[in-house]
Every structure is written in C-alpha cells, then in structure tokens.
C-alpha cells in the first residue's frame, strides 16, 4: 500500500518536473489612487520578463482595502500575495510577524537609495518589511494668479497666520473660489491625518508620556478653533465630506485658492490633462506654528507571510518599486508623473528637477519630517500625522467624526474636544494603556 | 366599464403620472447619460442634458481596469446558483408547512425571518475564520452557499404564502384518486406552484445580485461579482463622475433589463399573498 | 395512519431548511457569543482572554449606542412613512386610466433593481454634492445657497436615498392590491353619494390594510440592516448623526478590529431584532390570519 503510494507520488513528482512550471498567480491588493492605477496598466515589461507569473489585481477604495487586507492578514487567510499598505501599518504588522522581510531584493534594487526618513519608518531591527511605492509629505499648493490678485507673496514656509490671511483674501464665493481647501471627511487617514499634523504644529499631541489623551489642553483648543473658523469663512461648502480626492477634484477645477495636503497631489494638479489650473500652481512648504507642520506617509508594497508565492511576490515588489519602473513611467507619461518621494536618485535627476517644479519642496518636506519628534513636547509614540499604535485607526476615526461634526457646525469646538477626550480615555482604558 | 372617463382627465392623469415616473427614474437616466460624457462635461455647469459629445471612452477605461465579463459571469453564477440551491431546499419545507402545518409553524417562520436581521458585520470575523479553515475564501461555492442562507428565509416565506393559496381540496381529491406522492407533486402541485416559484426565483436573483457585504468580504478576485467591480469607484480620484457612471451602468444594466422583462411575474410574487 | 406517515414526511421536508438555518444561526452565533466574552482584537493577537461582561458594558455605555438606537428607529420609521404614504398616493395615481401605463410602471419600478452601493454613490456624488451636484446647480440657478445635504441633514439624506429604493416596492404591491378592489363596491359607494375622501377611508384603506402590513414587514426586515448606503455616503457621521446599529457594529468589527466588542454588539443587535420580530409577528398574526 505504502509502496504504491510512494510510487504514485514519485510519478506525480516526475510529471511535475516534466511539464514546464505552471503559471503562478499573484493576487495584488491595491488602492484606487492614480499612481497605482497607472502601475496596473504598465506591467507588460514585468509579465514579458516573467511569463510564468500572472497578475491578478484587486483595486479597492482605501477604507475598504484596509478593512479587507487587515481581516485577511490577521486571520492568515492567505488571499493576497502582495498588499498595498501605509507606513503606519508596516512596523505594527512586522512586529506581529505578518509580513515577510524584504532583505534580498536582487542586485539592482539599491535599497540604500531609498530616502532615509522613509526607509526608517518601514524597517524593524534593521530589516526592510515593505518597499515604498511612493512617499509623501505635506505642502501647500496654491494658485499663483489668485495669490497675485490678493496682493500677497507666498514665502518659502509661511506661518499659519499668513495662510489664514491669504485664504480670506483669495475667497470669492460669488465665483466659487474658496481660499482654502482642507480635509474634513471623518477618518484617521482623512481629516485626522491633517488635524493630527496641524495639532502637532500647534504643540498639541495626542497623548502625553503616560498615554493620557490631551484634547482638553489649550493647544488643541486653539488649533481646532482656527481650523473651524478658517474653513467656515474661506472653505468650500460641504467641507466636512471632503477628503484628499474630493479636494483634488476641487483644486483641479479651479475652486481652491490654497490646498494643504499630500505632496503627491502636485503631479496631479500640474498635469494639464486633468487640471484646468495646471499652469497656475505654486508650491510652498507646509505652514509653521510652534513647529513646522510635519507629515510622512508612504504607500508601500508588502508581502504577507501567509502568501504561498513569496519569491514571485518579492520579484514583483522589487520590479514595481525599482528605478527601472520609474524610468518606464517617465518614458511613457513624462517625468512629472513618476511615483515621487521614495528614492534619492530621483531627486538628483536633472530631468526630473526640470519636469517637476514641485520636486524641491517635496524633498525638503520629506527630509524635514521626524517620525519620533512630531511636536513640541515629548510623546510616547511615533508618527507625524498618525499615532503608531494599533488602536489609532479606530480612535482616529472616532475622534475624526467629532471634529467633522464641529466643522459641519453640528457641534461646537468645545463639545467636539470634550467628546474626543472622553472617547480617547475610554478606548485607551479598554485597550489597557499605559502598557 | 360603467364609469365614464373624460378625455381631459385621462390626459391629466397621463401627464401627472409620466411626470412622477420620470422624476423617480431620473437618477438612473442621468447616470446612463453621464456615462457617455467626457469627465469635463460630466461636471459642467449648467449641466448638459443631451447635447454633448457622446463618447464611449469611459466604458473602455473601466473595462481596462477590471475584467467586466468575469465579474458579470460571477454575478450570474452566484445569484442564480444561490437561488436554485435555495429553492431546492425551500420548496419541500414550504410545501409541508403549507399543507401539514404544525402548531409551531408560524413561530418557525418568524424565527427564520428574524435570522435575516442579524447584522452581518458582527459575524464576519467568525465566518472569515470558518471560510479560511474550509478553504472557501474567494470561491464561488462558498459565496453561493452564504447568499443562499441569507435569502433562504425569504424564499421559504414567499413559497409558503404562495402554496397556502392552493386549495387543499384539490390535493385531497388527487389523493382520493390514489395518486402517489410523486404524482401528487409532479402533476397536481407543480403546475399550480410554478408561477409562485418563478417569482420567488426572480426576486431572489435580484436580492443576491445586489448583495454587497458578504460578496465584498468573502471574495477577492476569482469569485468576485459586480459588487467588487463597483467598489473600486466608491471614492473619487480626481474627476470621476463619468467613469463612475459607466461602471454603475454596467453593474446595474443586466439586472435592470431582467427586472423589466419579468416585472409582471415578479409583482405577482412580491405580494406575498397579501392580495386576495 | 396516513396522517402519521405524512406528518413524518412533512417534518423530513422541513428539516433541511430548518437545520441549515439553525447551523447558519448557531455556528457563527455560537462563535460570536464566545468571542463576546473575550478580549479579542485582531490587531493584537495572542492577547485573547476571558473578560466576562466587559464588552457588553463598553458597547452599551458607548456614547454612540443610544444615538445609534434612535437613528435606527428614525431610519426605519422615516422610510416606512415615506414609502407607504408615497406608495399609496402613487398606486392611486397609477390605477387611473392613462396612456402608456406599462411604460410608466417600468420607469417607477426601476430603482428597486439598483444595487444599494450604486444608488448611494450616484445620489451622493451626482445629486447631493454641494459643489458639482445637480441639486447644488438647481439651488444656484434659483439664486439660493446650495445645501450640503450629507453634512447638514445626514440622516434625512439617507432616508431619502433608501426611500427612493423602496418606494417602487411599496407602490407595486399596493397597486396590485388596489387593482383587486371590487369595482361594484366602488360603484355602490358612488351611488350612495360618497365623496372621494370617504371612499378612500372607508373602502380603499381597509382593502389595502393587508398589503400595507406586508410592505411594512418586508421593509422592516431589510431596513433594520441598512448599511451600504451609510458606508458610502456619510460613514455614520458627522459625529454619530447617521450611525445606525448595523453601522456601529461594523465600525467596531472592521474599523477597530475589536472582535470581542463587535461580537457583543452583534449579540445585542440579534436580541433587538428578535424583539422586533416578535412584535411584527403579533401584528402580522392579526392581519394575515
């Protein structure tokens, strides 16, 4: 019996050897951002070079993506071979052993070329656990024509007061021009990304060293009051439902005077195919309060440890985040459209500097972001526009709902902060902090 | 017809009814129109109703991002499959509930319906864990069974109300004639039950086609139906109204057409025996 | 003898669906019940432990809980009022003689076939968006300030969207019921000189009562678990203003990945659903016997 079985298995092994290896399918979960959708269309060189690998795309909206991917990875469902995750998740997930270390990415990969602040945030014990696809910081994008009309000149890094003043002067509600567009849609990756970093710049952290929530402090009160005031006065209608993409659409259609958001937006607002104001966009560093506003985000490709095709997956990740991919995009769509913010070499490339007027402010913003010291006081967490604890997704979204309500005028600033404090205390107590 | 209807009032009702109907239908019409616009025309102010450059470019763009046909086929297989499977289980149950009611039949029915009110999100993680251990994640079989279970209460109940309207004297007469159970079912019951079964089938295909929680969470790519197809358009990327409209039109068109063709049949079943 | 045989057979025939539903209820429900007493967060594996009623305490004392309860009732109630009220009016209108009745009916039934996700996306972006939406354009054309529906009237907007989807359903059932109304009775009433209103109250409404009950029952089952419309449009906000119970459970389960808390929420929702079911059963029992 067992002889026969062995014989059968041997025969199977023989057949397996005899026929060429069957195509391996890589299921890639990704977010529906412009750069990712572009990548999806440009994989021909990769599939040509690797005919035995088939690519299967699952493109989802950010929140749905995060929910699907986290469920699958945490339960070890093994549905995805490559996932798109942010630099917020990477250290947390790596610590849980959910991600494969990416330490052997091939000779051409040149991991040392990755911008140090980005690489640092994606590593655990000196090993890279995710490869950055694009990186971003925050900056101000503004309409040069409207700024001129308002009789102002944008400094390299303005103060918050300058920004508020300019926003008021640029606003022309009759003609649907709103001085400032900021995120208002509730979500830890939406309005709370902006407000966490804005708060930090005002000297308002999420927690003190004992993990005690700080929303009852004066600094938060000032930050939120200013935010609600300027958005009411000079923001677009419906701001409390606007996230990154909504604001992008508004800016592209000429309805925003200024927009403080991720640097990655620069290549979209300056692309004449999509943007009606492409030739009138200026860039400045994010505003300064007690401290400059800091922001560091990277969409990265990671390989879950539950994948059954780790080698093929790594091969794809290496290709998609390589210099060669950058060059391929540059050849097809121009240098201004390559995924930004990940490699030093890109910012040293004269062609890129020429094609992308936003290159320097982007690099400066990224390099000035300090994940460990986001605000004026010492904090027990890492992160500039997020807080690097697993509970932050939920907490950030719950607090974001309150701040969104304040923006919509459904609650006062004081009420919102009080609720935020209460919610945070509850959640932290439930999660067992201080740990 | 004893009541006389003046031409004026007929015209009055016609205009009023058409107005209301067009108003109700307008969002769908607008979506279809927008799907043929360029992105710039889609947000033009004032809006362009008919006079714009018609283009099918959005459909090409949407198709290039995800394979519509595969999602479409998955939707068809999952919705039809879960309905047929459901009918297979529900027909005998409803039949015996209608003709051999026990004391607790009503309670049993209500309990079945109440399972439909269970919030899906609360049991997602347990289900996901089960699906993982059984290897059912991203399989058509897995999602078909789940959708069948979700709609089973409705199927049983619809059939039950239908069967109850079949006069039991006919069955008794058949029995007196010495018809076997098989004959009873095949020759007497089935012809009378077919309209009810048909409309149950239609309604459940529609419900399964539109189910967007389990399909989104338990499938990934190979088994993913049209609800996943639309999920990648649920947040804007720059200007996206026209693309959203094209994807929406593609997702709803098949079921809309099916619904229209079968609406007479469907309405009969929808009444759940409420109309005597 | 034959009866006993048939009874057994009847049991056997009911058995598959009952057993399946029982499994469907009990396996996930059992697991949910088990998890609801655990401290279990997907994001911190290896920390699972028994914590008694803590999850229930947290869920019930959540500031969002009572708001969510109220919103759930408002949502179900609001949609029921609009669809039943609107459905009766529409059914009366469609019952009148007119040209092209078939096409009118096709147009009216259409929203019922639309995926909830799609209809929410379309309403949110192409109609209610305060900058590019059609409503904003209408407001501007009339010289008014565009209304930001989803921020200012979030629950009302969702009620509107959901009502649009369910109005056709109500209309068609009521229309079918109306068409079965005995026209001789109507004529008799007319002979007696009854006015339109009194005819409606004394004749039409009682005739429709059964159909109305059915509409209420079916819609309640689906409306208690409205979810996609909220997820797509408001994410339950601003604040908790459009969070219903289903959405609250969802946010625990899939935003916080707090399996324990979500399980407790799920159990509470099941209990509430059963209370509603008992209530409905009483109501239905009376009308449908």
Which short descriptors sum up this protein?
heterotrimer, B: 276 residues, mainly alpha, MetI-like fold, 13 helices, C: 289 residues, two-stranded antiparallel sheet, 75% helix, globular
How would you describe this protein?
The complex is a heterotrimer of chains A (435), B (276) and C (289). Chain A contains 19 helices and eleven strands. Chain A has 435 residues and is α/β, with parallel strands linked by helices. Chain A has two domains: 166 residues, D-Maltodextrin-Binding Protein, domain 2 (3-Layer(aba) Sandwich); 218 residues, D-Maltodextrin-Binding Protein, domain 2 (3-Layer(aba) Sandwich). In chain A, the strands form three sheets. A five-stranded mixed β-sheet of chain A has the order 2-1-3-11-6. A four-stranded mixed β-sheet of chain A has the order 8-9-7-10, sandwiched between helices. Chain B contains 13 helices and no strands. In chain B, helix 7 packs across helix 9. The longest helix of chain B is centred in the N-terminal third of the chain and has 32 residues. In chain B, 53% of the residues are buried. The mean pLDDT of chain B is 82. By secondary structure, chain C is mainly alpha-helical. Chain C has one domain: Orthogonal Bundle (MetI-like fold), CATH 1.10.3720.10. In chain C, strands 1-2 form a two-stranded antiparallel sheet. Chain C is globular, with a radius of gyration of 24 Å. At the A-C interface, helix 4, helix 18 and helix 19 of A face helix 7 and helix 12 of C.
List the helices and strands and how they pair.
The complex is a heterotrimer of chains A (435), B (276) and C (289).
Chain A: H1 2-18, E1 24-31, H2 34-41, H3 44-49, E2 53-60, H4 62-74, E3 82-86, H5 89-95, H6 116-121, E4 123-124, E5 127-128, E6 131-136, E7 138-143, H7 144-149, H8 160-170, E8 178-181, H9 191-201, H10 218-234, H11 244-252, E9 256-262, H12 265-269, E10 281-285, E11 297-302, H13 310-320, H14 323-333, H15 344-348, H16 350-355, H17 359-368, H18 392-407, H19 413-431
Parallel strand pairs in A: 1-2, 1-3, 8-9
Antiparallel strand pairs in A: 3-11, 4-5, 6-11, 7-9, 7-10
Chain B: H1 7-34, H2 39-42, H3 57-65, H4 68-99, H5 105-115, H6 120-134, H7 140-164, H8 168-176, H9 181-210, H10 214-218, H11 226-231, H12 241-261, H13 263-270
Helix pairs in contact in B: 1-12, 3-12, 4-7, 4-9, 5-7, 7-9, 8-9, 9-13
Chain C: H1 2-36, E1 38-39, E2 49-50, H2 54-61, H3 63-94, H4 101-109, H5 116-127, H6 134-141, H7 149-152, H8 154-179, H9 183-191, H10 196-223, H11 228-233, H12 245-255, H13 259-288
Helix pairs in contact in C: 1-13, 2-13, 3-8, 3-10, 3-12, 5-8, 8-10, 10-13, 12-13
């Amino acid at each position: 019996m067992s002889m026969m079985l062995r014989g059968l298995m041997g025969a199977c092994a023989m057949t397996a050897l005899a026929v060429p290896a069957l195509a391996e399918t890589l299921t890639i979960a990704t977010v529906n951002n412009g750069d990712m959708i572009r990548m999806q269309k440009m994989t021909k060189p990769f599939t040509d070079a690797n005919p035995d690998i088939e690519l299967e795309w699952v493109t989802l909206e950010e929140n749905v993506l995060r929910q699907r991917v986290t469920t699958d990875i945490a339960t070890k469902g093994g549905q995805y071979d490559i996932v798109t995750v942010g630099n917020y998740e990477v250290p947390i997930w790596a610590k849980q052993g959910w991600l494969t270390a990416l330490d052997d990415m091939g000779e051409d990969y040149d991991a040392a070329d990755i911008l140090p602040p980005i690489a640092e945030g994606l590593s655990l014990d000196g090993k890279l656990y995710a490869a950055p696809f694009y990186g971003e910081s925050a900056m101000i994008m503004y309409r040069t024509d409207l700024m001129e009309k308002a009789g102002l000149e944008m400094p390299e890094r303005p103060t918050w007061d300058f920004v508020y003043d300019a926003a008021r002067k640029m606003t022309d509600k009759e003609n649907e021009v709103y001085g400032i567009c900021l995120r208002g849609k509730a979500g830890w990756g939406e309005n709370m990304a902006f407000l966490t970093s804005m708060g930090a710049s005002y000297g308002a952290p999420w927690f003190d060293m004992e993990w005690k929530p700080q929303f009852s402090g004066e600094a938060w009160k000032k930050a939120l009051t200013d935010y609600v005031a300027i958005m009411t006065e000079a923001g677009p209608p419906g701001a409390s439902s606007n996230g990154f993409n909504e604001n992008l659409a508004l800016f592209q259609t000429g309805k925003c005077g200024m927009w403080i958001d991720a640097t990655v937006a620069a290549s979209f607002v300056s692309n004449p195919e999509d943007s009606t104001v492409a030739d009138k966009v200026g860039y400045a560093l994010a505003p300064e309060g007690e401290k400059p506003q800091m922001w560091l985000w990277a969409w990265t490709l990671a390989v879950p440890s539950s994948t059954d095709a780790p080698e093929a997956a790594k091969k794809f990740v290496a290709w998609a985040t390589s210099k060669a991919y950058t060059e391929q995009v540059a050849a097809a769509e121009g240098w201004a459209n390559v995924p930004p913010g990940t490699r030093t070499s890109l910012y040293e490339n004269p062609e890129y500097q020429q094609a992308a007027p936003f290159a320097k402010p982007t690099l400066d913003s990224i390099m000035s972001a300090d994940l460990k010291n986001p605000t004026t006081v010492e904090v027990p967490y890492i992160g500039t526009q997020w807080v690097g604890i697993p509970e932050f997704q939920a907490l950030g979204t719950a607090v974001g709902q309150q701040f969104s309500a304040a923006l919509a005028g459904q609650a006062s600033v004081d009420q919102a902060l009080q609720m935020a404090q209460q919610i945070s205390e509850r959640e932290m107590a439930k999660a067992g902090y201080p740990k | 017809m004893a009541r006389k209807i003046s031409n004026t009032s007929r015209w009055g009702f016609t205009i009023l009814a058409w107005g209301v109907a067009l108003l109700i239908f307008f969002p769908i019409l607008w979506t279809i129109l927008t799907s043929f616009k360029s992105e710039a025309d889609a947000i033009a102010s004032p809006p362009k109703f008919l006079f714009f450059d018609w283009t099918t470019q959005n459909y090409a763009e949407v198709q290039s991002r995800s394979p519509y046909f595969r999602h479409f086929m998955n939707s068809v297989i999952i919705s039809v499959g879960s309905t047929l499977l459901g009918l297979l289980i529900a027909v005998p149950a409803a039949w015996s509930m209608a003709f051999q009611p026990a004391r607790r039949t009503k309670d049993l029915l209500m309990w079945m319906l109440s399972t439909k009110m269970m919030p899906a999100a609360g049991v997602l993680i347990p289900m996901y864990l089960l699906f993982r251990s059984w290897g059912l994640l991203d399989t058509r079989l897995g999602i078909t069974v789940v959708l069948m279970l979700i709609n089973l209460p409705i199927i049983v109940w619809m059939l039950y109300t239908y069967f109850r309207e079949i006069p039991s004297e006919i069955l008794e007469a058949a029995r007196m004639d010495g018809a076997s159970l098989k004959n009873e079912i095949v020759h007497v019951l089935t012809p009378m039950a077919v309209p009810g079964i048909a409309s149950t089938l239609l309604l459940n295909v529609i419900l399964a086609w539109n189910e967007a929680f389990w399909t989104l969470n338990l499938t990934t790519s190979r088994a993913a139906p049209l609800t996943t197809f639309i999920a990648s358009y649920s947040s804007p990327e720059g200007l996206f109204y026209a693309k959203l409209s094209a994807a929406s039109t593609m997702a709803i068109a098949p079921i809309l057409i099916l619904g229209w063709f079968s609406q007479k049949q469907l309405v009969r079943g929808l009444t759940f025996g409420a109309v005597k | 003898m034959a009866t006993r045989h048939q009874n057994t057979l009847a049991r056997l025939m009911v058995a598959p669906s009952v057993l399946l539903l029982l499994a469907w209820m009990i396996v996930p429900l059992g697991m949910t019940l088990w998890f609801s007493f655990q401290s279990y967060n997907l994001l911190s594996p290896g920390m699972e432990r028994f914590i008694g009623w803590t999850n229930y305490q947290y869920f019930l004392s959540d500031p969002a809980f009572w708001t969510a309860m109220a919103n759930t009732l408002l949502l179900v109630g609001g949609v029921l009022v609009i669809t039943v009220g609107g459905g009766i009016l529409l059914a009366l209108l469609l019952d009148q003689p007119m040209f092209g009745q078939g096409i009118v009916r096709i147009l009216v039934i259409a929203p019922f076939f639309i995926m909830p996700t799609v209809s929410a996306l379309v309403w949110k972006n192409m109609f209610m968006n305060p900058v590019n939406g059609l409503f904003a354009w209408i407001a501007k054309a009339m010289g008014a300030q565009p209304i930001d529906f989803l921020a200012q009237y979030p629950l009302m907007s969702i009620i509107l969207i959901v009502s649009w989807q369910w109005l056709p359903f109500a209309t068609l059932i009521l229309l079918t019921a109306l068409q079965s109304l005995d026209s001789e009775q109507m004529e008799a009433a007319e002979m007696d000189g009854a006015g339109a209103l009194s005819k409606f109250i004394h004749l039409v409404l009682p005739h429709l009562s059964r159909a109305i009950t059915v509409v209420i029952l079916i819609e309640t089952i689906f409306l208690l678990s409205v979810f996609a419309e909220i997820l797509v449009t408001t994410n339950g906000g601003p604040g908790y203003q459009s969070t219903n119970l289903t959405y609250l459970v969802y946010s625990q389960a899939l935003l916080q990945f707090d399996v324990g808390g979500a399980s407790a929420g799920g159990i509470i929702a099941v209990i509430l659903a059963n209370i509603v079911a008992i209530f409905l059963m009483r109501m239905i029992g009376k009308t449908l016997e």
